Amino acid sequence: MTRAVTSRQDPAWYTPADLPAEVLAIGSPVQGGLGVGASGKVGLLDLTLAPCAGATRVQRQYQRAPLHIYRPIYLDAGRPDMAFLFMQQSGDGFVQGDRCRIDLDCAPGSAVHLTTQAATKVFGMRQNFATQLVNLRVGAGAVVEYLPDPVVPCRGSRLFQRTSVTADRESTVILGETLLPGRVAHDEAHVYDLYWAETEVRRPDGSLLFAETLRLTCADGGNPRSAGLLGRHDVIATLYIVTDRIDAPSTVDLLRSALVACPDVLVGVSELPNSCGAVVKLLGPTSASVQAALRTAWNAARLALLDTPVPNLRKG
What we know:
Required for maturation of urease via the functional incorporation of the urease nickel metallocenter. This is Urease accessory protein UreD. Keywords: Chaperone, Cytoplasm, Nickel insertion. InterPro entries: UreD. Mean pLDDT is 94; it is low at 1-5. The chain is globular, with a radius of gyration of 19 Å. The longest helix is centred in the C-terminal third of the chain and has 19 residues, at 287-305. α3 (248-259) crosses α4 (287-305). Helix content is 12%, strand content 40%. It has a domain at 36-230. Strands 3-4-7-10-13-16-18-17 form an eight-stranded mixed β-sheet, covered by helices on one side. A seven-stranded mixed β-sheet has the order 2-1-6-9-12-14-15, with no helix packed on it. By secondary structure, the chain is mainly beta. It has helices spanning 11-14, 21-24, 248-259, 287-305, and strands at 42-52, 55-64, 67-69, 83-89, 93-94, 99-106, 111-116, 120-122, 130-138, 143-146, 151-153, 158-167, 172-179, 194-202, 208-217, 235-242, 266-271, 277-284.
């Protein structure tokens, strides 16, 4: 992947390749407003982090509004070397025609936690859609956590996002995602047009460890609350633990044991393909109950893998 500055001006840099036909079908030009690629519609964040003087430091940073970060902070007493990055998006959230791309390159031995400052709202879209690409490269011995706050899809919203991870065999990666039903106080529970989220993890040689797609739609008679999807539940979350520090069956056992204490949510824990780790699936009635269970699983994984509990992220 080239990192020449000129390449970032090319729409191919921030436009997802191989978009599903269902997404392409709603990609009509934006009329009467800012179109795809206009100023303020393309958010880019490109970071390289590496160990330096006992902590992980930002070695290179490129950002274009609406995406930006401030300097990393170090708030985990158990891992004082870990850089915590709070990603911010100027404006209230995604609107039609927005294109965002995040690249995080973590050198061998680094320790990084990337999160958002607040939940990500996706507003209604009469034309086109919004996309977000997240590319994480994790070197040998590195620890990377990518745990953004929940996505809140508003009425008529359309979001395609793809998270691609390249993880060295000796690295540890913790990924999480949470989808809320929408602005429930505005009577917007599961009335979005399309939410499409892809996750894939590969080795540096390109070999695929696993890939997963979450597709939910309310358009053309779709019903996320059908028995084969969310059922009676409103909130869905996933936590991936990719590591070789502990074998996959042991990782599954410790997560299951921890989640017994979360009776208010429906929980599933299983091994990831290629024995690369474990995945937790959560369904629940409220954001609070699902987020508490997600934190419980994250804490159990951290204690086992890093010998330190989850820190206070100071988000209020």
